[in-house]
Amino acid sequence: MELHHRAIMRSAKLFQDISDEEYEALINCLSPRIKHYAKNEILLLTEDSVQHLGIVLAGTASAYLDHVSGSQTLISNLPPLSIFGEVLVSTRMHRSPVTIHAASDVTSVFIEYKRIYSMCEVACSVHRMFLQNVLKIIGDKYFHLFDRIAVLREKTLRAKIMTYLYTLSGNGDAKTVTIPFSKTVLADYLLANRSALSKELKKMEDDGLIVVKKRKIELAF
Amino acid sequence: MELHHRAIMRSAKLFQDISDEEYEALINCLSPRIKHYAKNEILLLTEDSVQHLGIVLAGTASAYLDHVSGSQTLISNLPPLSIFGEVLVSTRMHRSPVTIHAASDVTSVFIEYKRIYSMCEVACSVHRMFLQNVLKIIGDKYFHLFDRIAVLREKTLRAKIMTYLYTLSGNGDAKTVTIPFSKTVLADYLLANRSALSKELKKMEDDGLIVVKKRKIELAF
DNA sequence: TTTATTTTGTTGCCTTGGCAACTAAATTCT
DNA sequence: AGAATTTAGTTGCCAAGGCAACAAAATAAA
After folding, report:
1. Which nucleotides on strand D sit less than 7 A from a protein beta carbon?
2. A139 touching B, CB under 8 A?
3. Which residue of B83, B116, B117, B138 is the best one to mutate when testing the A interface, meaning the one whose CB has the most A CBs within 10 A?
4. Which of A148, A220, B110, B186 is the most exposed place for a label (fewest CB within 10 A)?
5. How big is chain A by its Cα radius of gyration, in Å?
């Protein structure tokens, strides 16, 4: 594994609260493997057997929930330093619930689950910190799904949008939010019709609730 | 902690793949505390600071997502041996995203997060197994939310119901499923109107898709 | 820069299913 | 067992928003 990849990976949440020395020892132990993907290539298919935890080092990938009908629902964007596959670390089946594909050219690193488990004897305390980080990351992901459900359960489209923006603003902390995807994808994310979303955003602007400037939205509520 | 409580707790997923001896040592170390709740009492409020992992030993509790408007959305039922609060083990804030209340009289046991972390030195290998179990449980919970989203993203009520029943049947394994709650609550769970649900179930029965017998539903698809 | 592709706004029509209101049936409580 | 409460079925009305189709604007590719 090349040095600059090591350096990038260093700042992944996975290695938080781990010293530089421990980090070096750890990645030797974990022996991560680098892979490159061209835009639109598939990193992972639904139902694939997953034996690796992945970290996006460069580019952005997207995770989709596949539908029987062939349609897809965006679950999350994976910008650099995102972790994926970690929820499967401990499940019996290790089957991916999502399809992940490269939204741009992507560089990703993979760590075998086995390695994660088998290193305990060697470095118990670091291992513990590492597992704790994995736990934290999974917890965060869980809360993201939770936020999603908080949005989806709203009955009206406006309430969905409001809830989404509120969550995006860190529960009211920021006055301006930047939507991390296009309006087309946002509609998809909110499980709404794109034209309906377009209409409603306009209405909300008329009602003085928000000001839409491309992907930036000023909140006035 | 009384013996029969120990015995019940023994079969919680949390202690899977841990020997009887290890189990005994473990719970001494974890020093769990028992609490009793009368029906409708609150175990946990949204935004509560959570420092304990809980296990339901007897009775059933329910986790709800609170809404600004005061309405609630059922997230999950917690029958005996369910774990709760475990997702927060590693998050910074330890704030509960849900309100949990006793659907019947409930006996529950609590384990401090601290204990979970601080036992490593004493029993590394058991600790590892235990953390792995926590990881697995969180993973499972994650997938439950996932299933929920798979249901919610369906556009038509019928599709929602179908997806729900399919998931409930173990992806087609069982021909008969038992809905774990009343139709009223089911409507709530599907984020649909109760009367609409009633109508649609009847229609589906007319179309020969299902046979509804109280809470048991035969699947013919 | 020119072309191709994707994103966005906008309109009208029409279906899904939310809502209220009431009755009946089924549980639970005492 | 009888009363009280909760759950379930049924109806008609109506609004939210899905869908299709098109044009314009903006991005990306060549």
Report:
1. 6-12, 16-21, 27
2. yes
3. B138
4. A220
5. 19
The CA-atom distances, in angstroms, between A57 and each of A12, A48, A107, A146 are 9, 22, 5, 26
Nearest CA among A219, A97, A207, A206 for reference residue A164: A219
> pLDDT digit string (tens) for B11-31?
999 999 999 999 998 888 889
List the single residue in A with minimal CA-CA distance to B98: A146
β-partners of residue B219 are: B210
* A129 pLDDT tier (thresholds 50, 70, 90): confident
**The two three-digit tokens of residue A193, written as one number:** 């019709």
One DSSP character per residue, B32-95 reads -EEEEE-TT-EEE-TT-B--EEEEEEES-EEEEEE-TTS-EEEEEEE-TT-EESGGGGG-SS-B
Q: Per-residue pLDDT tens for A11-28?
A: 999 999 999 999 998 888
- Cβ–Cβ of B149/A145 closer than 8 Å? yes
Q: Can you tell me the distance from the alpha carbon of B98 to that of B44, in angstroms, rounded to the nearest whole number?
A: 8
Which structural domains are found in chain B, ordered by start? Answer: 3-151 (2.60.120.10), 155-219 (1.10.10.10)
